[in-house]
Specification:
Layout: H1 21-34, H2 45-58, H3 60-67, H4 92-98, H5 110-113, H6 131-155
Helix pairs in contact: 1-2, 1-3, 2-3
Length: about 170
């Protein structure tokens, strides 16, 4: 990619105090009402929406997830455009108890999974993926999976056309 078309991943952590759960839930329920849902294997669109409403009523963490706007990190009209995003909300106490950063996924131990053999034996002399390469592939695969999920959320089951209709993931023929 040239300088004008480079892609970056921004990682941000935000610590939030919920000061009024009732107002937060009302705002989250407004977002749920406006959101476009897709039916899954077992549930209709209305059932999916109802489940999201129930989650907002049951847990302020779910409500907070609905009012977070990760795309607002990049200001509109500055020469950069958000092409994909994901958000995860975790209770700070739960994250600390688990020894993780709030909202972060646990990364596999690539050093143990992809130990580099330096013995020189014939059965070890083939291609070997290094831990760093495996970690890079894992991170890129997660990013592309998020993009594909966002595409399905946005486009539903609409077919992909020859022209670029804004799909984030492109699959070769």
């Amino acid at each position: 990619m040239d300088e004008a078309q480079r892609r970056f991943m921004i990682t941000a952590e935000v610590l939030v105090d919920v000061t009024d759960a009732a107002i937060l839930r009302r705002a989250a329920l407004d977002r749920v009402a406006e959101a476009g849902f897709v039916a899954d294997e077992d549930r209709s669109v209305d059932q999916v929406r109802s489940a999201e409403r129930d989650a907002v009523y049951a847990d302020v963490t779910a409500a907070l997830g609905w009012v977070v706007d990760v795309e607002a990190i990049v200001v509109d009209g500055v020469g950069a455009e958000v092409v994909g995003s994901t958000v995860s909300v975790a209770d700070d106490e739960d994250a600390e108890a688990a020894g993780a950063v709030a909202g972060a996924e646990e990364m596999p131990d690539f050093a143990a999974l992809f130990a580099v053999c330096r013995c020189g034996a014939d059965d070890c002399s083939g291609f070997q993926s290094t831990p760093r390469s495996a970690a890079s592939l894992w991170a890129v695969a997660q990013l592309h999976a998020d993009f594909a999920y966002d595409d399905v959320q946005h486009f539903g089951d609409a077919p992909v056309s020859e022209k670029d209709d804004g799909w984030a993931v492109s699959v070769p023929r």
